[in-house]
Amino acid sequence: MKIMKNGERASIKGPADWFTGTVWLNEIATKPDSPRVRCVCVTFEPGARTAWHTHPLGQVLHVLSGSGLVQAEGQPVRQIHPGDTVLIAPNERHWHGAGPENIMTHLALQEANAEGVQVIWMEKVTDAQYAAR
Hints:
By secondary structure, this protein is mainly beta. The protein has one domain (about 10-130): Jelly Rolls, CATH 2.60.120.10. The chain is about 5% helix and about 45% strand. The protein is built from one helix and 13 strands; from the N terminus they run E-E-E-E-E-E-E-E-E-E-E-E-E-H. Strand 3 and strand 4 (about 35-45) form a beta hairpin.
């Protein structure tokens, strides 16, 4: 057993290629002997969001605080709140992020496929797509 103490891992600012706005990533779990499963605590500042992306084996989001938005391609933008869990199907094109006036923090869980791929990043969500609530 190993306990990772608070403060042992620094918060990392989300890369500009993957996000619009300021996003903070805090690694929760990646097993060194089996890096297939990853859990990250992600905090989006107001208006911040991911780019469009997919996950070969799907993704689970669990909202911890704030309020956010999520959209699967071809579906309406939907609001998400603390306690909500979003189940994203394998290869489902989607984005997620904070609402325009509040931060949002969620846990993001995904598993890598046999080639080690957990996520495929695409183009950024436009302001018009984000505003279509």
